[in-house]
Amino acid sequence: MPTPAAAPASVLDKPLIHFGRRVLDRVAPGAPEAAYRLLDVSPLTPHIGAEIRGVDLARPIGEDLAEELRQALLEWKVIFFRGQHDFGPDHHLALAAVWGEPEANPFFPKAETPGVSRLAKDAQAIGTENIWHSDHSFMAAPALGSVLRAVEVPPAGGDTMWADMASAYDNLSEEMKSRIEGLAAEHDWVPTWGSFMTAEQIAELRKTLPAVQHPVVVRHPQTGRKVLYVNEPFTTRIVGLPDAESRELLHELALQARIPEFQVRFRWQPDSVAIWDNIAVQHYAINDYYPQRRVMERIAIAGVPLS
């Protein structure tokens, strides 16, 4: 009986996801340690995600507090607050203003309060955000961040996860880092949002929302850290590569967000608030609560072109 042929060495030598130790830097090496006077910061993991205690977001946010909130978000990439019982739309807008102007999602229903999107999911409106993604990457200037408030949560399930895409980049092989350096990728809303639209609706929206290109590796606008910037639903191709090579490379890069060491998971309670750095992380809304109801309110914060 003939002996089965051995698998090619390249398949065995280059697994897509490696086991063992990972490089997990909370901030760029050499960056100064943050000091907080007004915030009680309780980490959920050593390098991504922290709960902020002792802050009432319904009270006016002075500049000293605003500066510490900005610093905490840069350090932890996503920050959480619980028990914000008096937190309404005006407070939501004031909190988002710590980072910038609100930015509407062109595909969300128009909100009762301008700038605040209400996302209600139940047996009739199934959640479809259960894929690793970066908000608004299909725009020329993707959202800088998002502020999300839990209005109604199911008795169990409905958690959200975030993945640190600077760590995702740091843990690529040197060979892969060299391969993707200087490459650009196309980002497009049509394969996702367009699936709910007619050809005529797509053509009309294309006039203001064409496909855009961003670097595969971007420099974070504030920290300067290199961040892997491709995501499954919106990144459609690597510019300049043959289709098959582009698909293979995108698949390998997209897998990096799924590595647990890069992630933090948050269990929502009513009146919890999360703020995340949309350039530094991707997120995934876990759709395990059907047919229970989950209602969230979100503000996206306008960003800048990436380089």
Query: What's the CATH topology name?
Result: Double-stranded beta-helix
Q: How many domains comprise the coordinates?
A: 1
Question: From the coordinates shown, what is the CATH architecture?
Answer: 4-Layer Sandwich
| Order of SSEs | HEEHEHEEEEHHEHEEEEHEEEE
So what's the overall shape? globular
- The CATH first-level class comes to Alpha Beta
- How many H/I helices? 7
Task: Tell me the name of the CATH homologous superfamily.
Answer: Clavaminate synthase-like
Poorly predicted ranges: 1-12
Helix fraction bin: 10-25%
Q: Approximately what portion of the residues adopt beta-strand conformation? A: 15-25%
* Strand segment tally: 16
Structural class: alpha+beta
Largest sheet: 8 strands, mixed
Write up what this structure looks like.
This protein is α+β, with helices and mostly antiparallel strands. It has a single domain (35-301), classed as Clavaminate synthase-like (Double-stranded beta-helix, 4-Layer Sandwich). The protein contains seven helices and 16 strands. It has helices at 9-13, 63-76, 89-96, 165-170, 174-180, 199-206, 243-254; strands spanning 40-43, 50-53, 78-81, 102-103, 117-121, 145-152, 160-164, 184-187, 212-215, 217-219, 226-228, 235-238, 263-266, 273-277, 281-285, 294-301. The strands form four sheets. Strands 1, 2, 3, 4, 5, 6, 14 and 16 form an eight-stranded mixed β-sheet that branches. A three-stranded antiparallel β-sheet has the order 13-7-15. It has a three-stranded antiparallel β-sheet with strand order 9-8-12. Helix 2 links the parallel strand 2 and strand 3 (78-81). The longest helix is centred in the first third of the chain and has 14 residues, at 63-76. The radius of gyration is 20 Å and the shape is globular. Residues 1-12 have low confidence and may be disordered.
